[in-house]
Write a structure and sequence with these properties.
By secondary structure, the protein is of the alpha+beta class. The chain has one domain (45-264). It contains six helices and 13 strands. It has helices spanning 14-18, 36-42, 97-104, 154-161, 169-181, 185-188; strands at 47-54, 59-64, 69-74, 81-87, 90-94, 113-115, 123-130, 143-146, 196-204, 211-214, 223-228, 232-238, 258-264. 39% of the residues are buried.
Length: 286
């Protein structure tokens, strides 16, 4: 972690260097933006066609056809969820949290999109409604629905505690994907990837730059809603940290189930077409 320097003498122009203005790495003025009004209109008269209950400290998979909507819903108590997404036809195409973060920021909300990994790099899903949009950023720099945390995993748990814990979100997602694909856990594990931390309230400490979590503001009835831009296979883990107010990767936290709902509209949004894979030639020439 970055701490105040103690061993190196500051140069005379240190303050001038610190005051250099930042530059946005990826200006998004030319990024194609979804027509949210058309997406909202497509919700009129939609039909709920599926739902999946995700038990506490477990994960479940679900399918969403391109052109449909899905919601992740809090149903019993404050609970965060770790979301993985793949192309339903090819799990090599998966959610790319790092590029999503670079394009949209550390925390996502309505209008932001979830992008797939290279070489595909296309919008997989668009956030169409967020009942926690009111939260914004708090006095600690915390906000909800982050793409900065990785997912709690048994390897880090082993590293830090010396113990094995098999209900970390990484393990939960691995078991769920193994069951859905009918393949061994060790075979599908490499497809499990960094997540969208749904409902989780996180940020970075200002003094040490450490990733922090705090009690989620989510309450029963809150939901995060998405539009599937491509045919999706999803997996959601109800994190063993519950609302992440104290710890994760633990049987001590109070945990609750989450609900995934899938909705089919009467017709796709006006003017919408499922995005093609990224058009880069892949020549990588000198």
């Amino acid at each position: 972690m970055k701490r105040a320097p103690h061993e190196v003498t500051e140069p005379q122009d240190a303050e001038a260097r610190r005051k250099i203005r930042p530059v946005i790495c990826y200006p998004v003025d030319t990024l194609p933006r979804p027509d949210l009004a058309a997406y909202q209109a497509a919700r009129d008269g939609w039909e709920k066609v599926d739902e999946v209950v995700v038990p506490p400290r477990e994960a479940r998979c679900f399918r969403v056809p391109a052109g449909s909507f899905f919601r992740i819903v809090s149903i019993e108590g404050p609970q965060v969820g770790d979301l993985n997404l793949w192309s339903a036809g090819d799990v090599n195409e998966r959610f790319f949290s790092g590029k999503t973060r670079a394009l949209h920021g550390t925390h996502l909300s309505t209008g932001d999109q979830l992008w797939s990994c290279l070489p595909y790099l296309r919008a997989m899903a668009t956030i169409t409604h967020d009942t926690l949009d009111w939260y914004g950023f708090d006095e600690f720099g915390g906000s909800v629905h982050d793409v900065i945390g990785t997912r709690c995993d048994p390897y880090t748990h082993k590293l830090l505690s010396g113990n094995e814990y098999h209900h970390c979100c990484h393990s939960n997602l691995t078991r769920a994907l193994s069951e859905r694909l009918g393949k061994p856990k060790q075979e599908v594990e490499p497809a499990v990837h960094d997540v969208l931390n749904v409902f989780m309230c996180t940020g970075f400490t200002r003094d040490t730059g450490q990733y922090f979590m705090k009690a989620s503001p989510v309450r029963p009835g809150d939901y995060l809603e998405f539009f599937a831009e491509i045919d999706l296979l999803g997996a959601l883990s109800a994190c063993p940290g519950g609302d992440c107010s104290a710890e994760h990767s633990s049987d001590a936290a109070v945990c609750h189930p989450l609900l995934v709902e899938v909705y089919r509209p009467k017709a796709p949004p006006a003017g919408w077409a499922s995005p093609a894979r990224n058009g880069y030639s892949r020549r990588h020439e000198d």
